[in-house]
Amino acid sequence: MEEERIITIVGSVLAKEGAEFTYAGPDAACEGCKVARVCHNTKLRAGRRYRVSATRKTHHECPLHEGGAEAVEVVDSEMTVVIPTSQATRRTRIVYTPVCDERFCKGYAFCHPDGMVEKEKYVVMEVLGSYSETCPKGIKNLKLAKLRHVP
Questions:
Q1: How far apart are CA 149 and CA 134, in angstroms?
Q2: In the chain, where do the E strands start and end?
Q3: How far apart are CA 52 and CA 10, in angstroms?
Q4: For the chain: N or C, fewer Cβ within 10 A?
């Protein structure tokens, strides 16, 4: 599966291959900026997690990022998430729905990883194995898997 590369601009601190971030969308400080259209590329989706796949040699001053900002190429990040065993087959497309909504559970971050968007489509890239924590709601047969958003 070919990853769609998106050109955008991120703070210089994040402009390193492998760095990940969750896109938050435009800020009021972006109004009137000459490169805002690139920073907020129409292919980026607020709430989704991205990984820097390549850097470019362009530097821009930015009121939001100390040290300025740089152009990069990004792809959707793979995220580790808990899914039902019935969905845990490599290369399967699924619609993401959190398994549980218990906020004080030790595994909450695996049921609600930063950057996963509920009701969007993802592909199972890899099944990592059984989820070992006990779900406080008694949900059984769970697997840890790496998912990537389907464009």
A1: 27
A2: 6-11, 20-22, 49-60, 69-76, 79-84, 93-95, 121-130, 142-149
A3: 9
A4: N
Residue-wise pLDDT for 77-133, tens only, equals: 999 999 999 999 999 999 999 988 888 888 899 999 988 989 999 999 999 999 988
Residue with tokens 């601009």: 9
Q: Give me the residue spans of the domains in the chain.
A: 6-76, 79-149
Q: pLDDT tens digits for 5-26?
A: 999 999 999 999 999 999 999 9
| Spatial separation of the C-alpha atoms in residues 38 and 26, rounded to whole Å | 11
Would the pTM of this model clear 0.85, i.e. be above it?
Answer: no
